[in-house]
Design goal:
This protein has helices at about 15-25, 45-50, 55-60, 65-70, 95-100, 120-125, 145-160, 175-190, 205-215, 220-240, and strands at about 5-10, 30-35, 60-65, 75-80, 90, 105-110, 130. The chain is α/β, with parallel strands linked by helices. The protein has two domains: about 5-160, SPOUT methyltransferase, trefoil knot domain (Alpha/beta knot); about 175-240, Orthogonal Bundle (Helicase, Ruva Protein, domain 3), CATH 1.10.8. Helix 1 packs parallel to helix 2 (about 45-50), helix 1 packs parallel to helix 7 (about 145-160) and helix 5 crosses helix 7. The chain binds S-adenosyl-L-homocysteine (SAH). S-adenosyl-L-homocysteine binds next to helix 7.
């Protein structure tokens, strides 16, 4: 089995960067490009910079919400040069590429805006934070250059004969299933008063980090949803 890999560019401002990213992808054998709310697309500059990779630009899937770009994926990596206040599990591009080829899944690699990168909320949708180990005094690569580095590492990993992780009994949970679980968890914690919605602090962020780190399979998520439903039922019975 080979991994199913997509590149997701969030709110790109320069159409030329979309074309250059498509070219970077095609040289390394990647073809699925998702654009979340691009500021200026379609645009002739994108095709111009794509050079012979205009097929990838023309087939790019444009969506208006990140959830639509990654909902069916089972593993998401967010790329960012910046460390965050609540650190996320980190993988270098090489570690990421190797893990993707050792455990093939439906994968999305997220790239942020030219001006402001990925928001904390977007990074918290991810299983891992991937940082290109650049010059610490000047660490921010051009968007398409960052795509090229990641695509190159994926290419190298695809050519290496990496040992494949043995098959699991249930498929990994999708991002959509995880998001439904987080909403359910949040509502039950509010109902039990464990979570005060007026003072949420970083509770959901920390729980997201915990459960994303565990990478539950679809059966495990069903069990957790069942537990939450039983807590909600018990609360309703107690209220009566
Ligand atoms: N000024 C922005 C940088 C944006 S660069 C910021 O503060 O985050 C555009 C995108 O390229 C980033 O969002 C990220 O997806 C990618 N990128 C650039 N440099 C990177 C690096 N050193 N490591 C990982 N991703 C990088």
């Amino acid at each position: 089995m080979t991994p199913d890999i997509r590149i997701v560019l969030i709110q790109t401002s320069h159409p030329g960067n979309i074309g250059s990213a498509a070219r970077a992808m095609k040289t390394m054998g990647l073809s699925q490009l998702y654009l979340v709310n691009p500021l200026d697309f379609p645009h002739p500059k994108a095709l111009e910079m794509a050079s012979g990779a205009d097929d990838i630009v023309n087939q790019a899937i444009v969506v208006n919400d990140l959830a639509h770009a990654i909902g069916d994926c089972t593993f998401v990596a967010g790329t960012s040069a910046r460390a965050r206040t609540i650190p996320w599990p980190m993988q270098s591009p090489r570690e990421l590429a190797e893990s993707i080829y050792k455990t093939p899944q439906k994968v999305a690699l997220l790239f942020g805006r030219e001006q402001s990168g990925l928001s904390n909320e977007e990074l918290q949708r991810c299983h891992v934070h991937t940082q290109i180990p650049a010059n610490p005094d000047y660490s921010s690569l051009n968007l398409a250059s960052a795509v090229q580095v990641l695509a190159y590492e994926l290419r190298v990993a695809s050519l290496a004969q990496l040992p494949i992780t043995p098959a699991w009994d249930y498929p990994p949970a999708t991002v959509e299933a995880m998001e439904n679980f987080y909403q359910h968890l949040e509502s039950v914690m509010v109902a039990t008063t464990f979570l005060n919605p007026k003072v949420p602090r970083q509770l959901m962020t920390r729980l997201r980090r915990l459960f994303n780190r565990a990478q539950p399979d679809s059966m495990e998520i069903n069990i957790l949803r069942g537990i939450l439903a039983s807590v909600a039922n018990a609360l309703r019975s107690a209220e009566k």
